[in-house]
Amino acid sequence: MDLAFIYARAGSGGAYASVEALKLRADSVQAAYDAYGIGCGSYPSMVSVPDVQAHEQVRLFPNPAHDRVTVMADTPVKGLELLDAQGRLVLTASPTGTRSTLDLRGLMPGFYAVRIHTTVQTHVHRLVVH
Questions:
Q1: What is the Rg, in whole angstroms, of the alpha carbon atoms belonging to the chain?
Q2: H-helix or E-strand containing 59?
């Protein structure tokens, strides 16, 4: 059984506005499950975890972020992709080196996924934009 605890409260508009805000939040959570290919009840049973050949550390900060976020990696970053809660690609970057900054100005507040492609592997980090 999969559970998500969702909270939403409208600042104005009465009880019905809060219900609408809750529906939007629930739709956003469902979209995130769909975007990451995780259907309800579809978590695989895991017996073991495969050995990782290369240990690579990737950091994303600050998180939550407002106008920019910095990505730092042990190895060079080849590409960055920012996806919204519905799984839509909203921003891409082709940095060089091990440190890069993404400009988040103009993005709506919400939950995002950052795909970080390095020369070793691809990492996915969650990001909150407020």
A1: 17
A2: strand 58-61
Count of CB atoms situated within 10 Å of the CB of 30: 15
**Domains in the chain and their CATH numbers?**
1-50 (no CATH), 58-129 (2.60.40.1220)
Phi, psi of 87 (to 5 degrees): 85, 10
Residue type, 13: G
Under a CB-based contact definition with an 8 Å cutoff, are residues 28 and 111 in contact? yes
User: pLDDT in tens for each of the 130 residues of the chain?
Assistant: 456 777 777 777 777 788 888 888 888 777 777 776 665 555 555 445 455 555 789 999 999 999 999 999 999 999 999 999 888 999 999 998 999 999 999 999 999 999 999 998 899 999 999 9
Cis ω before 50 (30° cut-off from 0): no
Q: Which two tokens stand for residue 42?
A: 């579809």
Total-model pTM: 0.59
